[in-house]
Amino acid sequence: MDSASPQPSELNVRPVKVVKPLVVSFDAYDTIYEPVAPVHQQYHAIVTRYKGNWPSEEEISTRYRQHYSQLCQEYPNYGKSAGWPIEIFWKTLLNRVFYDGEPTIMDAVVSEIASHFSSHAAYHVFEDVEPLLQALAKNGVIPAVASNADEQVTHLVLHTFGLIDYFGKENIFLSYHLELSKPDPAFFEKIGTKLLELKNGEHSLKGLSKAEIKDHWWHVGDDYKKDVLCSQRAGIRSVLLDRKGQYGFLKEGEDSVIVHDRFIVARSLLALIDLFGMNESGKGA
């Protein structure tokens, strides 16, 4: 459990009516999509084709975490602060992870890994994503992506797996372009301003105040600090997507819990269809 997480036993969990959304935003990585296998395992599968069992999966995992954190501090926002294309950021990271291998072999490894993770073969979209997006569309709710995730990978996934038509190009809000990132509440403040400027077809938010939008805006994500605390500090309602039950809010066999009127915990996105009052006819209950 995240150290910032409250203890469920300390919370007053009680029946509460859920406010129906006008906007639902989603984190991307580990909410909409995930790697088909852990990143370090995919790295290892590629590197061992070139040089036996060096390095081990555990060593790759340790090096990846260490160097990713360090590189993000040196070159924030995937290197954009230094004028890097995203590809340079990832190739720099890979070169650091595999820095002590034979240069000619490691060049090939880095090139293949970069190519692999630039293709849809490296990723998987969760099965509960599209049913919720379909329900939102039928009920006139505006979906958006609000994420710190890699811009190129996020767009690759949304286009390759047929999700971009639900969101539309204008409703993809990534830290790379906003130059603000979670857990800074200003990230959501900036998105709220942009939402007011968008037409969103027949579901325009024009005429509403930012406060009215926030009161009917739910953000969904898997990280308590970056998704829940951040969105709530920005005045937005939040859904913690806890697929593995790791935060301790959900009892065994429980799909969702309404912690309070601005905070829901759900094991699956499918639970939100009922919680948001969206029945099969496409009309809110």
Automatic annotation (TrEMBL):
Entries under InterPro entries matching the protein: HAD-like_hydrolase_domain, HAD-like_sf, HAD-SF_hydro_IA_REG-2-like_cap, HAD_sf
Pfam families: Hydrolase (PF00702)
Organism superkingdom: Eukaryota
Regions that span the bilayer: none
Gene Ontology CC entries for this record: nucleus
Record-linked Gene3D superfamilies: HAD superfamily/HAD-like (3.40.50.1000), Haloacid dehalogenase-like hydrolase (1.10.150.720)
Official protein name in the record: Haloacid dehalogenase-like hydrolase
Organism: Komagataella phaffii (strain ATCC 76273 / CBS 7435 / CECT 11047 / NRRL Y-11430 / Wegner 21-1) (Yeast)
Upper classification of the organism: Eukaryota, Fungi, Dikarya, Ascomycota, Saccharomycotina
